[in-house]
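Re-running the complex after MR caught last week's input typo. The corrected sequence lines follow. Everything else is unchanged.
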Amino acid sequence: EPEVTQTPSHQVTQMGQEVILRCVPISNHLYFYWYRQILGQKVEFLVSFYNNEISEKSEIFDDQFSVERPDGSNFTLKIRSTKLEDSAMYFCASLDGMNTEAFFGQGTRLTVV
Amino acid sequence: AQKVTQAQTEISVVEKEDVTLDCVYETRDTTYYLFWYKQPPSGELVFLIRRNSFDEQNEISGRYSWNFQKSTSSFNFTITASQVVDSAVYFCALSENNAGNMLTFGGGTRLMVKP
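Corrected-run output:
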């Protein structure tokens, strides 16, 4: 069964460093998302991406964040200068069409120290 | 603005008991979609069900059943004869038709099933 793959599963980084979280969505999917879950809290929407551009973003997704689909298969989330409060589980999701179910990756746990 | 409320933060039951997880939502859209996801201790999000706002039929899948009531804006989830493997955090989520499939999640309910 096709699945969304995220790497790495866990990343530890020092405050102020840049990190790139990688996702490989399901191959025929058209809509891509990043969500964040701070430990013990709810899952929060960060950004959606369609047709090679951001379609929606939340207040969390400030200038420190960016997304890219560099090669037609990977979908990346970059945090330019990490802060302690960026520590969270980051989930990538993809959909094949409007209003279908979102397939989530297994998540990347980011720890900023 | 859309909002999902899961009032029960934590529920503890003994194996074989039935348990209902509550979900109440708010939306101004007439077309929307409701979801339940399971997050086991390993952390991934597992899709359980998707329902559109025009389909109020209750659904049963094995030990799982869902009760959608537009009149009370609720989409409750019942596990019959719970098992230890059902222990997880369960999230209810809402997607509005005009919001580009963005999911708004509730705060989650942690279900602990004891042997």
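None of the earlier attempt is carried over here. Chain B has a mean pLDDT of 94. Residues 18 and 80 of chain B are 4 Å apart (CA to CA).
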